[in-house]
Write a structure and sequence with these properties.
609 residues; alpha/beta; Glutamine Phosphoribosylpyrophosphate, subunit 1, domain 1; Rossmann fold; 3 domains; 8-stranded antiparallel sheet; binds 2-deoxy-2-amino glucitol-6-phosphate; EC 2.6.1.16; cytoplasm
């Protein structure tokens, strides 16, 4: 899950490649590098760390050239350092790679026996050497790449230049994203459309096992057997503004505050006062959903938490049995699939390797059909699903998911309503749920006004090492999401539990140094939750409660704080109560001075296993 950009142009491409890499840093930021081909000579610059480190090296010694490749890395094979940074050069070949080559070890041994000398620990360098070897026998770069990828096992997206073929870049993909950007008199490759938004909106999405050759004049695609292939041109709707940070300090903060608008986009044209509109899941969607007797949801990380909330909703309101599973588990075990089961993949990026593999695996297991809930049109998950419900959240740049989560929940709420109606939910209740959902953008806007109080609260966490999050029912996944946010950007160790589980073990951790954060909606479980909070209080724990305005919680009896928030109703309250937890994680991270948008060791899009 690294990022790739490449260009074949008349103008100097290094500044374009650097701008493209900056848009791709969400995919990894352990090291960056670029190489430019000029008059048969390759100039290369690489640096450990973010793209800006490499950029300042480049600016201290810039070089011209119209053909180039560039890379931002998330380390898999080999530590993040300059030697392991891409592009890798061997013989006539310079190459960047995203993915993992599984059979690299035997290939490396064979190539070493033939005299190739490797200077990095990466699997990528092996690929470069193989292509160089395959250039012999009169093959050009494209034929050599084709011959090489036929021998590879694993996942890759690559961009390659040869010192013997000026003006040409060859790319290939299998299991990792790569697309072509068509400019005027210049053409590009990129891991996504965002990387190319500065130069073009005309995009060709490559398919698995495609090999592509770009020059200034055009782009030609080939299948693995070397035959020319035709793939359609799409107009990307991304604008350069959509990926600007604007007045906000971090992308994460911007994305938190975009949520009312983003959720409104998810709901737009899909629901009215009368309920969910027909045909919102694409052609044949309503007919397929009419046969649903159960649901399996598969996802990773934050998207998995969205799936967990949906389990409560679908079982409560649509009375359908639901299983939710993390994709990396699902794909490697045998599941029981009762007839009429719908498979749902939830993914912000639509490129998460485990989710994609799980969805492909599901084809073999006899589901009724697959539904993708996704934010990126033309992503692999979206393209391969039978039905899709796009979340329309707009680009999410911060590694920590915020608006992706709440828009996934809004999409899952639409699905819940659709299926609940079909399963005969009482009309009055259906109307109530519909009204709550229509009010959601406005309720989120109100919830965001809590920020000043959350900032004050954040001060208490600056020197903490641990935190516990509690919730019950559909607010347990909200607690999980809150703890994930806190740990990933502030590096404070956090765990979440269903509040009723506390006494079965985690209570032993509670003392005056352990802050306990609880989400307290008003509802039938409130009294139960209050008893659980008493257990914390009795052990001297510091309680921070985010409570619905109607929930009777005695703030004075708490060592800690109770913050009030209008949760907007029992249906939408998991979405609304997520907001203060996101704000808390964000402001704690800011106070601790961490890299909020690009926390250590992580990447936005996890396209490796
Ligand atoms: C959470 O903040 C992370 N961004 C991560 O858990 C993420 O949700 C997970 O990697 C799945 O990504 P996806 O939604 O793009 O598939």
């Amino acid at each position: 899950m690294c990022g790739i950009v490449a260009a074949a142009a008349q103008r100097d491409v290094a500044p374009l490649l650097i701008a493209g890499l900056k848009a791709l840093e969400y995919r990894g930021y352990d090291s960056a590098g670029l190489a430019v081909l000029e008059g048969g000579e390759v100039h290369r610059v690489r640096a450990k760390g973010k793209v800006r480190e490499m950029e300042s090296l480049y600016l201290s010694n810039p070089f011209p050239g119209g053909t180039g490749i560039a890379h931002t890395r998330w380390a898999t094979h080999g530590v993040p350092n300059e030697a392991n940074a891409h592009p890798h050069m061997i013989g006539r070949i310079t190459l960047v790679h995203n993915g993992i080559i599984e059979n690299y070890a035997p290939l490396r041994a064979q190539l070493q026996a033939k005299g190739y000398h490797f200077t990095s620990e990466t699997d990528t360098e092996v690929m470069a050497a193989l292509i160089d070897q395959n250039l012999s026998g009169g093959r050009g770069l494209r034929e050599a790449v084709l011959a090489t990828v036929r021998d590879l096992e694993g996942a890759y997206a690559i961009a390659v230049i040869s010192s013997e073929e000026p003006g040409r870049v060859v790319g290939a993909r299998r299991g990792a994203p790569l697309l072509v950007g068509l400019g005027i008199g210049e053409n590009f490759l990129g891991s996504d459309a965002q990387a190319l938004v500065q130069v073009t909106n005309r995009i060709i999405y490559l398919e698995d096992d495609d090999v592509v050759e770009i020059t200034r004049e055009g782009a030609q695609i080939y299948t693995l057997d070397g035959k020319p292939a035709h793939r359609g041109v799409h107009e990307s709707e991304l604008s350069a503004d959509a990926v600007e940070r604007g007045e906000y300090r971090h992308y994460m903060q911007k994305e938190i505050f975009e949520q009312p608008h983003a959720v409104a986009n998810t709901l737009e044209t899909r629901i009215s006062a009368a309920g969910v509109l027909p045909n919102i899941f694409g052609a044949g969607g309503d007919e397929l959903l009419a046969k649903v007797k159960g649901v399996h949801i598969v996802a990773c990380g934050t998207s998995y938490h969205a799936g967990m909330v949906a389990k409560y909703w679908l079982e409560d309101y649509a009375r359908l049995p639901v299983n939710v599973e993390v994709a990396s588990e699902y794909r490697y075990r045998e599941t029981v699939v009762p007839p009429g089961t719908l498979f749902i993949a939830i993914s912000q990026s639509g490129e998460t390797a485990d989710t994609l593999a799980a969805m492909r695996e599901s084809r073999r297991r006899g589901y009724l059909g697959t539904l993708a809930i996704c934010n990126v049109p033309e992503s692999s998950v979206t393209r391969e699903a039978d039905l899709k419900l796009m979340t329309h959240a707009g680009p999410e740049i911060g590694v920590a998911s915020t608006k992706a989560f709440t828009t996934q929940l809004a999409a899952l709420a639409l699905l819940t309503l659709h299926l609940a109606k079909q399963q005969g939910l009482d009309e009055e209740r259906y109307r109530d749920l519909t009204e709550q959902l229509l009010r959601l953008p406005r309720t989120l806007e109100e919830a965001l006004k809590l920020e000043p109080q959350v900032i004050e609260l954040a001060e208490r966490f600056v020197h903490r090492h641990h935190a516990l999050f509690l919730g019950r029912g559909e607010h347990y996944p909200v607690a999980l999401e809150g703890s994930l946010k806190l740990k990933e950007i502030s590096y404070i160790h956090a765990e979440a539990y269903p509040a009723g589980e506390l006494k079965h073990g985690p209570l032993a951790l509670v003392d005056e140094d352990m802050p306990v954060i609880a989400v307290a909606p008003n509802g039938p479980l409130l009294d139960k939750l209050k008893s659980n909070l008493q257990e914390v209080r009795a052990r001297g724990g510091e309680l921070i409660v985010f409570a619905d305005t109607n929930a009777h919680i005695d703030g004075n009896a708490t060592r800690g704080a109770v913050l009030r928030i209008d949760a907007g109703g029992d249906f939408i309250s998991p979405v609304v109560l997520t907001i203060p937890l996101q704000l808390l994680a964000y402001h704690v991270a800011v106070l601790r001075g961490t890299d909020v948008d690009q926390p250590r060791n992580l990447a936005k899009s996890v396209t490796v296993e």
